[in-house]
Amino acid sequence: MDSEFPGTIYKPEGSVSSLSAANLYALMKKNVDALNIIQLSLTLSDAHGNLPTLGTPATFYFNFRDFDSDYDPYNPESIAFLRDQGINFADHKRRGINSRFLKSGLGTGRAWVTFHGLYDFGFLIKILTRHNHVQELFGDPGLRFEAHHPLLCASRWARSLSVERAGGKSHHAGSDSLLTMQLFTRLLLNSNYASACAMLRQFNSLLYGLTC
């Protein structure tokens, strides 16, 4: 899964890496509550990372009309960057769908793979629960673990694993969700079965910035 959104408008007083999990959660929630999603993409596979044989990768992405750059709050640098990447906000406003048409059944019986997916999950839960704010991602946002990993670039990671972007441009949700699945699959293929299972157990139910 990958999403595009209007950046962040609320910033921490210090560095993000110095925030506790609870404070990072509160910052994410404050931003997602105030902002509207731009794109969401899902790339589907089986439990082994195999994509369906449909002739093209099973990646589905949605352009939403929820975000209106004329009225809605946004981070100007983020919107300028997305425009440079080719996202046409006027076209989204004219032809995009309303996020309320996504059904909450998407969230059941699935395993999710994301790359730094804290905000992706925040926006997904917001639109699937059809609330104007984020429902609690967990029962208690004051989580046990507060470790933070260094920020990684997906494209640089792909190069290190010799994974070629299958299509589209970076910072488009469809292309990025497919690349995330490609990276995940490559990690599985580079490991034997026992190692892959151990890796999946190690990262099961962890969300970057909150639980790892």
UniProtKB/TrEMBL annotation:
The highest taxon in the source lineage is: Eukaryota
InterPro entries, A to Z = CNOT7/CNOT8/Pop2, RNaseH-like_sf, RNaseH_sf
Task: Give the UniProt entry's GO cellular component terms.
Answer: CCR4-NOT complex
Gene Ontology molecular functions: nucleic acid binding; poly(A)-specific ribonuclease activity
Q: What is this protein called?
A: Uncharacterized protein
